[in-house]
Automatic annotation (TrEMBL):
This is Dolichyl-diphosphooligosaccharide--protein glycosyltransferase 48 kDa subunit. Residues 1-19 form the signal peptide. Residues 301-439 form the OST48 middle domain. The keyword Signal applies. The lineage of its organism: Eukaryota, Viridiplantae, Streptophyta, Embryophyta, Tracheophyta. Pathway: Protein modification; protein glycosylation. It is a single-pass type I membrane protein. One of its GO terms (cellular component) is oligosaccharyltransferase complex. InterPro entries: DDOST_48_kDa_subunit, OST48_MD, OST48_N. PANTHER family: DOLICHYL-DIPHOSPHOOLIGOSACCHARIDE--PROTEIN GLYCOSYLTRANSFERASE 48 KDA SUBUNIT (PTHR10830:SF0). It is found in: Endoplasmic reticulum membrane; Membrane. It comes from the Eukaryota.
Amino acid sequence: MAKLSIFITLISLFPLIYSSFSLENPTDRRILVLLDDFAIKSSHSIFFKSLQTRGFELDFKLADDPKISLQRYGQYLYDGLILLSPTIERFGGSLDLAAVLEFVDSGHDLIVAADASASDLIRDIATECGVDFDEDPAAMVIDHTNYAVSDTEGDHTLIASDNFIQSDVILGSKKIEASTNAPILFQGIGHSLNAANSLVLKVLSASPSAYSASPKSKLSNPPSLTGSSISLVSVVQARNNARILITGSLDIFSNRLFRSGVQKAGSSTKHEKSGNEQFVTEISKWVFHERGHLKAVNVRHHKVGETDEPAMYRINDDVEYSIEIYEWSGKSWEPYVANDVQVQFYMMSPYVLKTLSTDQKGLFSTSFKVPDVYGVFQFKVEYQRLGFTSLSLSKQIPVRPFRHNEYERFITAAFPYYGASFSTMAGFFIFTFVYLYNK
């Protein structure tokens, strides 16, 4: 009976494993959403509906549910994790800080939203990802210049920001509400980036007039975070291509701010709708690999004029190298177009560095002459660009010198030496003849 139960459980896991993240279909994925309260499911329904419309399967659970588990029998059940549970002190089930970090280390994606009531657990997760929230638990981002006029409480914590990162791959080629320039509404806590972490990037920053402090108390000491150094939304792309989004506002995903009109202080223009919905939709496309996800296929190299890949090359051979690179568009693989993909012919250090030309259809190629050095070389492509998944490809190939019977019988450059040798012999013969027969 026990064996039958295990068999039924394994059978039930097959659909989950089959539908998990794959290189061929990066967006056919299941996402676990952990909430503080199921009320968030309705108050943030537009965001969730956007994900479901794009083909994601969401599994909603309370963050303290004792049945939470990210993996079973060594297989991950989910490919993405959304933490909209800023107050949780301890996750339920087998989930903890180490499990979340291991989930990311395994190449899976993560969204973390905090607010003024953020727990130590949420702050620790952010810190491990290279983001440090303001240590003052009562602090919020305040801006007395760039606040929303609709901030009825008058403490100017509902700020309007349009300081975006300039990256089409992260935020899309269509500018946020380009026709109206509607800013993003943000209400929450700010954070700074760990200077030692080169993988974390600001996506949305505060204005130079912003600062982080408690809105209920007077400033007695200088704020720890001020100006544009305050990040409102940050992203991380790990070296294993896992992607993370961290923000100090749970409301930035809410229906209320999605639908809210916005008028920036000091501006006479009132926008009927904020840019939050487009901003969150576009950045979630990046986080869940619907944009900026690259794959490389058909890596080839051969001698010029041939098609078969040899077991080794000889010094001074003429070589052709080609690779196909495609980008996932959310529905299909499209040819990737760029002029900065390079290949190295590498042994201890690059002997050849060539920029690959493209046919605009995904094929990148170049040709070069093998250097006059023999040993074990590698064809290496290390492609790392802002917002794109990194490509790291290498292919090893030995290079040999000429064999003894492959050298030219007479080398053109040696003709002067040949002439010197024969002229010496001729001179010696003439000298001998003259010496012997001269009376």
